[in-house]
Write a structure and sequence with these properties.
This is Luciferase. Residues 15-301 form the Luciferase-like domain. One of its GO terms (molecular function) is oxidoreductase activity, acting on paired donors, with incorporation or reduction of molecular oxygen. The protein is α/β, with parallel strands linked by helices and 336 residues long. It has a single domain (14-334), classed as Luciferase-like domain (TIM Barrel), CATH 3.20.20. Helices cover 42% and strands 15% of the residues. The chain has helices at residues 29-46, 67-76, 95-108, 125-132, 142-154, 179-187, 202-212, 236-254, 274-283, 292-306, 320-334, and strands at 14-19, 50-53, 82-89, 113-118, 171-175, 191-193, 224-232, 288-290, 310-314. An eight-stranded parallel β-barrel has the order 1-2-3-4-5-6-7-9, surrounded by eight helices. The relative contact order is 0.16.
Length: 336
């Protein structure tokens, strides 16, 4: 499958950051938030466009469950980079509450807040039921929730979102399949795809989005951002070692035994069966790992395939300094 859009160089598009506020083995949420601040400040200085945080629940290794709160914390410690959600799982919340929360963030940090929305629970079904309570849905009413959220921002609901009403906050739809791709195309909205854990669906979803896009007042042309795991180090071997931490995280999620982010290991193959290895390689198929030269080639190839307008990098690395350095190397590759 080939997407028919103009080919661009990685030096011609924007790059952004996705952060899950990882809690490393033996670490604390407080340390994770401090690391997020340091990474946000660095990537702002390096020239990355936006810094998004993801909503997940009941996961020992992720501290960004109260996503709106963490967004405010990061925005307060930065000054120019856009800060937002990648994403808020709208079925977990009342649209009015999200309108108020993001209206508040926009009032505090004018012109810097993004609202990325997803419809998955961001957790297991038991936790989803605990989050959604008596109003539990499976996400099928996401289009109606989105419409209601937009109405609060527009001030067309009987109940008013204050702050929120009149706020000009860019809304993105996030997806790992075709549902949000089609919906964002129909509504003329920007679309962000989770290629960092759903690589096989990347090109079909993007093709669906590009081909069905209907111009809107804010977007005359489609605008697609694609998230990818990117781990850069001085050598391919060092980067591969660093990448064993995220591989262990995915492996433990496959086993339904999520953990804090584990230290790198040299013998990862010995920790999993051939079947698990095959599934892991499939799920992390778009992960970009290596030296600056390797990462540059793989990023350009990824862009050539997706024809994206922006790439968001997710770098789950155990060592905080190595994570910071990975982003520095990526910025040098891009000439930021």
């Amino acid at each position: 499958m080939a997407i028919t859009r103009p080919t661009k160089s990685i030096n011609e598009i924007a790059f952004s950051v996705l952060d899950l506020a990882s809690i490393v083995q033996g670490g604390t949420p407080s340390q994770s938030f401090q690391h997020s601040i340091e990474l946000a400040q660095l990537t702002e200085k390096l020239g990355f466009k936006r810094y998004w945080l993801a909503e997940h629940h009941n996961m020992p290794g992720i501290a960004s469950s109260a996503t709106s709160v963490v967004i405010g914390h990061v925005a307060a410690h930065t000054s120019t980079i856009r800060v937002g959600s990648g994403g808020i799982m709208l079925p977990n919340h009342s649209p009015l509450v999200i309108a108020e929360q993001f209206g508040t963030l926009e009032a505090m940090f004018p012109g810097r807040i993004d609202l990325g929305l997803g419809r998955a629970p961001g957790t297991d079904q038991r936790t989803a039921k605990a989050l959604r309570g008596a109003n539990y849905t499976n996400g099928d009413d996401f289009p109606e929730q989105l419409e209601q959220l937009q109405a609060y921002f527009q001030g067309s609901e009987a109940v008013r979102a204050i702050p929120g009403e009149g706020a000009n906050i860019p809304i993105w739809l996030l997806g790992s399949s075709g549902f949000s791709a089609r919906l964002s195309a129909q509504l003329g909205m920007p679309f962000a795809f989770a290629s960092h854990f759903s690589p096989e669906n990347t090109l079909p979803a993007l093709e669906l989005y590009y081909e069905n896009f209907q111009p809107s007042e804010d977007y005359k042309e489609p605008y697609a951002m694609v998230a990818a795991n990117v781990i850069a180090a001085d050598t391919d071997e060092e980067a591969e070692l660093l990448a064993t931490s995220i591989k262990q995280s995915f492996l433990n999620m496959m086993r339904n035994t999520p953990t804090q982010l584990q230290p790198p290991v040299k013998n990862l193959d010995e920790l999993m069966s051939p079947y698990e290895k095959a599934v892991l390689e499939k799920q992390l198929g778009s992960t970009i790992i290596g030296s600056p030269l390797t990462v540059k080639k793989k990023l350009q190839s990824f862009l050539d395939e997706t024809k994206a307008d922006e790439i968001m990098v997710s770098t789950m690395v155990y060592d905080h300094n190595a994570r910071l350095y990975s982003h520095q190397l990526v910025a040098e590759i891009l000439g930021l």
